[in-house]
Structure formats: C-alpha cells, structure tokens
C-alpha cells in the first residue's frame, strides 16, 4: 500500500479513536470512529474536512485575476460563494481562500495564475472542520464570543474570530442536515482544537463523526 502524500494536521489526535481509514485526495482520512454514534447528528457532530485541497491569493488585483480564470468571487468581504466546484471565501478586502468541493479545477487554476505585481499567493495548510447538528451554534457559544446563530447561511456569511483561543474563520452554510458551520484554522493547533471541541461536543451528547457519516449528512 502506498503512503499518502499528504498528512492531516488532525491525524495524531484521531489515531486512538479511529476504527477505519480511507484515502481521499492523497490524505489518510478517518472513515469511522470506534465510539461513533449517528445520534450525534441529533445534537452536535464534528467532522474533519482537512483533506480538501485549498489555496489562496491576496492583493489589489486578486479578484480580477480570479475572475479572469473563470472564478466568481463574493461581492462583499466576510462572504463566501460556490464557483467552479469550489468554495470561494473572501476573508477581507482583497484576500481569498479557494477550497475544492466537488472538483479540483478551481484550485488548479489559482495555482496556475500568472505572476502579477498586485496578486500574491497565500499557501494554506489549514485544519478544516465542519460542525453540524441542532446544537452546533450552542457549541460555539461555549467556545467563541460570536453568536454563530446570527450568521445568515443564505447570504454566505462568514466571520474571522477566535475559537478556544485560536484564530479561526467560520462560515455558515446550508446542508442536507440543516445549518452547519465550516471552520478553518492554523493546522499547528489541530490536535488541541480537535480534542477540545470533541470533549465539549461529548458533554453535549454529541461527538466526532467519520467521513462516511459526515458525507451522508451534508450531501
């Protein structure tokens, strides 16, 4: 068996509880956890989406460069939209995160953008989570000063904030399981964030879910 070329920043924290692994986008991913309960989706569940490829650009010419590559960008800062099979998040006036969703084309296009004086690449080695279930916003109330229930998923709302003391970007989105929250943060805090949020979720009657359950829930 070949060794995956990419390593999730959450691997060490997940190793003990993992029951089965799969490989996605050349990264080892937990398909199911030992103590996983589908009932977590009825309270609050945490899934790992770190395997999705992502990159970024910033600068005065970033939006124009992305648009020229056929990628639609959000009209306002602190918004996200879907374009070319990717999630496009506008993190500020001129910075963008591009993460593949259903196809890798958009990320490849961004990585292939020609050099320009007003466009700067922003490599991303984030850990990426999804928090879903009826109590997802309540989990954030225990860990963050922003009330995530006020974010309008229909408008592609996102916020740059701090979760358990770690800087994070959180986006609200509609899924087959209801409103969910995508979260990206520095991968060096991966183990701390995963263990802390899973402990809180467990106390709330939820917990971690593997890719199999997560993919069915979010559609």
Outline the structure in words.
The chain is built from 6 helices and 13 strands. With 219 residues, it is an alpha+beta fold. It folds into 2 domains: 11-51 and 125-218, Probable tRNA modification gtpase trme, domain 1 (Gyrase A, domain 2); 54-121, Alpha-Beta Plaits (2-Layer Sandwich). It has a 6-stranded mixed sheet with strand order 10-11-12-9-3-13, with helices on both faces. The chain is globular and about 50 Å long. The chain starts with 10 loop residues before the first helix and ends with a helix. 39% of the residues are buried.
Brief digest:
The protein is of the alpha+beta class and 219 residues long. It has 2 domains: 11-51 and 125-218, Gyrase A, domain 2 (2-Layer Sandwich); 54-121, Alpha-Beta Plaits. It has 6 helices and 13 strands.
Based on CA atoms alone, the radius of gyration comes out at 17 Å
Quaternary status of these chains?
Answer: single chain
Low-confidence stretches: none
Basic shape: globular
- Element string (H = helix, E = strand): HEEEEHEEEHEEHEEEHEH
The number of distinct helices, counting runs of at least 4 residues, comes to: 6
What does the average pLDDT come to?
94
Which band does the percent of strand residues land in?
Answer: 25-35%
CATH T-level topology of the largest domain: Gyrase A, domain 2
* CATH architecture call of the largest domain: 2-Layer Sandwich
Structural class: alpha+beta
Number of strands: 13
């Amino acid at each position: 068996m070949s060794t995956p070329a990419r390593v999730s920043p959450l691997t060490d924290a997940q190793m003990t509880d993992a029951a089965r692994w799969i490989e996605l986008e050349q990264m080892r991913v937990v398909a199911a956890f030992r103590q996983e309960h589908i009932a977590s989706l009825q309270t609050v569940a945490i899934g790992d989406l770190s395997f999705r490829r992502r990159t970024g650009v910033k600068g005065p010419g970033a939006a124009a460069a992305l648009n020229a590559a056929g990628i639609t960008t959000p009209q306002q800062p602190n918004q996200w939209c879907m374009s070319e099979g990717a999630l496009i998040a506008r993190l500020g006036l001129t910075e963008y995160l591009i993460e593949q969703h259903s196809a890798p084309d958009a990320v490849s296009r961004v990585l292939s953008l020609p050099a320009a004086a007003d466009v700067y690449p922003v490599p991303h080695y984030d850990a990426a989570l999804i928090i879903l279930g009826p109590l997802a916003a309540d989990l954030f109330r225990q860990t963050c000063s922003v009330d995530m229930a006020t974010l309008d998923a229909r408008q592609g709302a996102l916020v740059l904030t701090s979760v358990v003391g770690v800087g994070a970007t959180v986006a609200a989105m509609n899924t087959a399981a209801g409103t969910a929250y995508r979260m990206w943060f520095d991968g060096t805090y991966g183990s701390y964030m995963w263990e802390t949020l899973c402990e809180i979720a467990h106390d709330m009657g939820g917990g971690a879910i593997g890719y199999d359950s997560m993919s069915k829930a979010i559609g």
